[in-house]
Amino acid sequence: MWNSSPEIKHSRSRISGILVSHRINVPFPTENIWILFANNHFGLKEVSYLCRMESFLKDLFKGQDYDEKNFFLIAGPCVIENKELLQQVAIRVSAICKDLGIPFVFKASYRKANRTSAASFSGLGDETGLTLLKNIRDEFHLPTTTDIHSADEAAMAAPFADILQIPAFLCRQTDLLVAAGETGNIINIKKGQFVSGEAMKFAVDKVRKTGNDKIILTERGTTFGYQDLVVDYRNIPMMQAHGVPVVMDCTHSLQQPNQTSGVTGGNPKMIGTIAKAAIAAGAEGLFIETHPDPSKALSDGANMLQLDLLEDLLKQLVRLRKAVV
Q1: What is the three-class DSSP state of 8?
Q2: Do residues 103 and 97 lie in contact, with contact meaning Cβ atoms separated by under 8 Å?
């Protein structure tokens, strides 16, 4: 077990074919990290990684009462549809999380630039969407997040959201990652469907080189054929080995993309399975898009969790987390 220190980070090296960990002094805010490495001849085989919440996440959640040993939740509708939807979801999810001691980030995208069809809803307009998102932060005293899609969006969105999310398809875009890092906001990079967990170190490094160490990585599935995704849970400890908290996207990982209808499909009945396995694998956070009526959602309704089902699922996950940590 390692003693906590704000100046300690782990790194990996090979000695006689054995993967080992050692401590080096770097300006990266980690606290109470314990890592146990095992390996085979291919490299990392298993990492048991238990980490108290990073200091930047503690700052993010300082206005909330929560169990520090709990996972944190990023949740909300896929896209900003209207003020009423945002308020309904914020009220319900924040109440559930308060009862269960779960730190909560409200998520809603002000713009969806990666829709399958040009006819699909992409947002209410940048200014309107970002203002509505900020209003949720101010009214409910919740940290917020939204995705950005180009370098020039980073500075525009940064004042309105605490976390800037980099979409999976764009996780290798250097200009985007650098611009996001330079805002000083927390940056959540989603692992590309075509990228290994180990290779995400390059995305992390691009942000760190801006002087921003406030980084989260999110697993959201790996391409399996043309119209499906699978989750490789080895990516959770592999990405934690980069010295960052890891989130499991429990909804987008169940997408069924590239449908000929022009609308992405999904399998929301498996959300609980994905979430439970992620908690068992040691993920620090969960990402769950939710909507009062997914069938009427303007984006990603096919893989969102119905809002009424969220509380029971979170209760199960909290019990599981207590058994794991």
Answers
A1: strand
A2: yes
Tell me phi and psi for residue 183, to 5 degrees.
Answer: -70, -25
Domain boundaries, the chain: 1-52, 54-324
Cβ atoms of 164 and 183 within 8 Å: the answer is yes
Q: Classify residue 242 by burial, with Cβ atoms within 10 Å: 0-12, 13-18, 19+.
A: buried
Take residue 207 and report the two structure tokens written for it.
């942000």
What CATH code is assigned to 54-324? 3.20.20.70
What's the token pair of residue 284? 């620090």
CA atoms within 13 A on the CB side of 225: 6
Q: Which two tokens stand for residue 131?
A: 């203002």
Instruction: Look at residue 247 and give its three-state secondary structure.
Output: strand
CB 150 within 8 A of CB 115: no
Over residues 104-146, the pLDDT tens digits come to 999 999 987 765 666 667 778 999 999 999 999 999 999 999 9
Task: Tell me the three state secondary structure of residue 50.
Answer: strand
CB 222 within 8 A of CB 253: no
Scored b (16 or more CB within 10 A) or e, 175-190 reads: ebbbbbbbbebbbbbb
Do residues 268 and 275 lie in contact, with contact meaning Cβ atoms separated by under 8 Å? Answer: no
Highest mean pLDDT of the ranges 146-150, 255-259, 301-305: 146-150
Name the DSSP letter for residue 31.
Answer: -
